[in-house]
Specification:
Elements lengths: L8 E4 L5 H12 L4 E4 L11 H6 L7 E4 L2 E4 L1 H12 L10 H30 L8 H22 L12 H15 L9 H10 L3 H6 L6
Parallel strand pairs: 1-2
Antiparallel strand pairs: 1-3, 3-4
């Protein structure tokens, strides 16, 4: 049975959000129990005054841990690892490994997510008749360049940083689910990326929170 932190964790956000999935998967890796409250898109709530008081951005996820409130998914998974991962497995303390993980978490925000968003929304959350296929092909090509960069990085590596699964694999793995899961695009052959993805996709937290159908 998952351990219950004291005070208990409360997570606001819909389960099909890639940023919420990062936190859900992280909680699973750390064997943490939590209460999740649907918010965002069809569930609303994220524009309500009480939610904006917690997260003035009006986005998901938001984590409440007693009287401490935190938003931004990468900040949240860092906090959870620092608070509950006594062995420092997800977020190692060795400076070079930690810096490498930080690099990927920053790269997600500056590069990967801005490129991934129009492709995912265009293919999954836009009706077929409303899609601009020329723009989507261009977006797919841009995404392919980024995943090819990771392909080269993974040559000779089991994980993105260090010798074990870390927050870098967890966070980028959520986006890899979308890259491999969307239909209607051509993908280059990336065997190192495919091997890495198939490995992390077997983890129970991924199966539970990240692998469900894309919506």
């Amino acid at each position: 049975m998952p351990r219950t932190p004291s005070p208990p964790l409360q997570l606001w956000g819909r389960a099909n959000s890639v940023n919420v999935q990062k936190v859900l998967w992280c909680c699973h890796e750390l064997d943490l129990s939590f209460e999740r409250i649907d918010a965002g898109m069809q569930f609303g709530r994220n524009g309500d005054p009480d939610y904006l008081a917690m997260n003035p951005n009006g986005r998901v996820p938001t984590l409440c841990h007693g009287d401490f409130t935190l938003w931004e998914s990468n900040a949240i998974i860092r906090y959870l690892a620092l608070s509950f991962d006594d062995a420092h497995q997800l977020y190692p303390t060795e400076p070079k490994t930690r810096a490498g993980i930080e690099r990927w978490l920053d790269w997600i925000l500056t590069t990967l997510q801005p490129a991934e968003r129009p492709l995912f929304w265009g293919l999954v959350r836009t009706p077929p008749h409303a899609r601009d296929m020329a723009e989507l092909r261009e977006a797919a090509e841009e995404n392919a360049k980024l995943w090819t960069m990771i392909e080269k990085h993974l040559d000779g590596r089991v994980y993105l940083e260090g010798d074990a699964f870390s927050l870098a694999d967890l966070a980028i793995g959520c986006y890899a689910r979308r890259w491999f899961g969307v239909e209607g695009i051509e993908r280059p052959a990336l065997p190192h990326l495919q091997r890495w993805y198939e490995s992390i996709a077997e983890r129970p937290g991924f199966v539970t929170w990240v692998s469900p159908p894309l919506t």
